[in-house]
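Entry 14. Structure prediction run on the chain below.
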Amino acid sequence: MPTFSAYDGTELAYQVFGDGRPLVCLPGGPTDSAYLGDLGGLSAHRQLIRLDLRGTGRSSTPRDTTSYRCDRLVDDVEALREHLRLDRMDLLAHCAGANLAALYVSRHPENTDKLALITPSVRAVGLTITGDLRLETARLRRDETWFPDAFAALEAIVAGRATADSWKAVAPFSYGRWDKAAQAHQVAGDERMDPDVVAAYGAEGAFDPETTRAALARLTSPVLLLAGEADLGAPPTTMAEFANLFRNAELVVQPGAGHFPWLDDAARFVTATAAFLDAPSTFTGREG
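Output returned:
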């Protein structure tokens, strides 16, 4: 697995899949990038460069664990771009990785060509996803056999009565199909998550939503926001708000998808994402 040295000497690892124009991929979590796989076959269209964030996967653990904080990881992404010798790069980010991507393009807009945000977290931009919206979105799954127990657990979470069992019980809502493949994906993801890294990622000072939103409003790079129709973590209504923060963004809602749309319908996901990445980079947003 190839590695490069970050600004503080930490050795960071990345994996390369496929051929074609590079697409740097930032995982959510924060965790390593293994759960992304080849993004449902997107590697047939682009060379995927999956970064393992510091302290995860094959990347080294830094001496200073406060460097896990999201805003400090921006320098790691920039170090990767320089290592790859890319003048400008296309960037794809999933879930919490979208916070890092938003901070990166805010600081380095000149180095970004296209930005694809897949079921993104909204912490970096300060949007609110209400409990009522999550419950409303969850009701789309009311015909599923697992729905009664999962919905009761979600109600407990929304009401502030969550337990560890509650969080386990709502896992089916993250997937368009709660089959054996989804269950195995969920278990593997839980095993890779380090609570200390997660806590440090969003520590106090990591995000300044007002500043980030102002920077994103000036970004002229094309942006894709891809939402899952049934995703509680990034409901389409909130994703529409997110898209409106950019000058040149489009929103795609994948029918029947949850938080991992490349698993729910790989062909539909790849078609939408590849079409965005392959389209000419022309500015279509508002001027001024």
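Confidence is low (pLDDT under 50) at residues 284-288.
Filed with the rest of this week's runs.
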